[in-house]
Structure formats: C-alpha cells, structure tokens
Specification:
This protein has 231 residues and is of the alpha/beta class. 33% of the residues lie in helices and 27% in strands. The chain has a single domain, classed as P-loop containing nucleotide triphosphate hydrolases (Rossmann fold). Bound molecules: adenosine-5'-triphosphate (ATP) and magnesium ion (MG). Residues 11, 14, 16, 34, 36-42, 191 line the site of adenosine-5'-triphosphate.
Length: 231
C-alpha cells in the first residue's frame, strides 16, 4: 500500500534520514519506533510532502508520489495527524468533523460523524462544545476523527499517545484496532512501546536517521529494545 525506499532527507546541511526504507502492507498497522530525534517525524513528514526528500522513492497505492504537495496527497488518500493537535478551536466538535468531509472512495466505506462518535465515544458528549473547550485527549481524538472524515486509505499518526491519560490511551488503541478491522492501513510513530506493541503488526526501529531493525512486532526481542529503545 505504501512503500518507502532509499529515503534521504536534510534540514539545510544536516542529514536527518539515511537510506530509510520499509513497506506498509494494506490493512496493517506499522509502528515507527526510536528515541527522540531518531527521525520518526521526519519520515512521516517526508511521506506527506511536508519536507522534501533529497533522494528516495515513496510509492503510495502504486503511484510514485515524491514531489507531490500535501493537499494532493490528502486527495489521493493519505491522512496525516501531526504531533501537535490540529483542530478549529472556534468551531464545535460537530463542525470540526463536517469541515473535514471529503467525497467517499470506492475502496473503503465512507466515514460519517455518527460512525466516528461510535469509534470515539468521548466525543459524543462534547459534540456541541467548541474545539477550544474540550480536553487535550478529546482534541487528540477529534484530530484523528477529522482526518478520517477525509476518507483516507492510509492514516499517518505522529505519536498519537503522547500526553494522553492511560485510560484514554487504551481507548485510542482500541479505536486503532477497530480502524484496522475496517480495512484502513496505518503508519504511526510512537515512543510508547507498550501502546505500539498492543496495536502494531510490524515495527520499524530508527536510530539517528537509519533503519536499525524491522520485523513482526511479536519478534521484537528485549536485547533490541534495550539497544535501540530504552532511554
Ligand atoms: N525543522 C527542523 N530543522 C532542523 N532540524 C530538524 C528539524 N526537525 C527535526 N530536525 C532534526 O532531525 C532529526 C530527526 O528529528 P525528528 O523530529 O524526525 O525525530 P523524532 O524521531 O520524531 O523525535 P521525537 O521522538 O523527539 O519526536 C533530529 O536530529 C532533529 O533535531
Ligand atoms: Mg517526532
């Protein structure tokens, strides 16, 4: 569904990614792991066209997409939820969902506000409240819900569990598993290994901009965790 190879991205003269490559199969959840500064966000931003890779290929749904602008990628079916929450604080929760709405795609059943309230029950109670007047966890869920209203084929999530209370994190994990069940493909970056292990099929571990380990989540051994993830 999404395939990255030989990706090299720079910030000015500083190289952030070195020959990064991995595959995200259709209907799977892949977790990008690694310590602070490993290059997780840069990888997601490179895929979404927010930073321009100097080299490498990104193939999405059979099309080479390097060089396309974020709005073009969004229309093709890449949904992106950045680390910082992105909602309209002056619009209600309900209105936030409506403005995200995009035409349905033949590949997947279209999202409606009602389906999203079922997926994120917390949002139901606050649906008439302004985006600026709901909790951080609710804003995080609203950002994901709003992105889903664009009917993406692949959802990119940058550290979705950051700043969430454990109870909310558990709900979010369940929501992502439900999304996977519905046929969505998910690539997420995470520092929370427990959260990632609960939802991801595959893991890709970055260290200083290079892929150091990748494989089935269930085969991630403690020596690798110690070497590449433990802080
Ligand atoms: N806008 C920027 N300008 C210059 N350097 C940057 C910029 N953004 C990131 N970097 C650098 O690129 C490298 C990778 O950063 P990136 O944000 O991708 O890491 P990350 O794995 O997402 O880390 P974190 O877990 O802290 O979010 C780091 O060395 C970082 O300092
Ligand atoms: Mg990051």
């Amino acid at each position: 569904m999404l395939s990255v190879s030989g990706l090299e991205t720079f910030y000015g003269p500083a190289q952030a990614l070195f020959d990064v490559g991995f595959d995200v199969p259709r209907g799977r959840v892949v977790a990008l792991l690694g310590r602070n500064g490993a290059g997780k966000s840069t990888t997601l931003k490179s895929i979404m066209g927010l930073v321009s890779p100097a080299r490498g290929r990104i193939v999405f749904a059979g099309q080479d997409v390097v060089g396309l602008r974020p709005h073009q990628l969004y229309r093709l079916g890449l949904g992106y939820v950045p680390e910082e929450r992105r909602i309209f604080t002056g619009l209600t929760v309900e209105e936030n969902l409506t403005v995200g709405q995009q035409p349905p795609r033949p590949e997947l059943p279209p999202w409606t506000a009602e389906k999203l309230y079922a997926l994120f029950p917390n949002l139901t109670d606050v649906r008439r409240r302004l985006g600026g007047q709901i909790s951080g966890g609710e804003q995080q869920m609203l950002t994901i819900a709003r992105t889903l209203m664009g009917n993406p084929l692949v959802l990119l999530l940058d550290e979705p569990s950051t700043g969430l209370a454990p109870r909310i994190t558990a709900q979010l994990a369940q929501a992502i598993l439900d999304l996977r069940e519905s046929g969505l493909t998910v690539l997420l970056s995470e520092q929370n290994l427990r959260f990632a292990a609960a939802i991801a099929d595959h893991a890709v571990i970055l260290e200083t901009g290079r892929v150091r380990w990748s494989g089935a989540m269930t085969t991630l051994d403690s020596a690798t965790k110690e070497a590449l993830l433990t802080v």
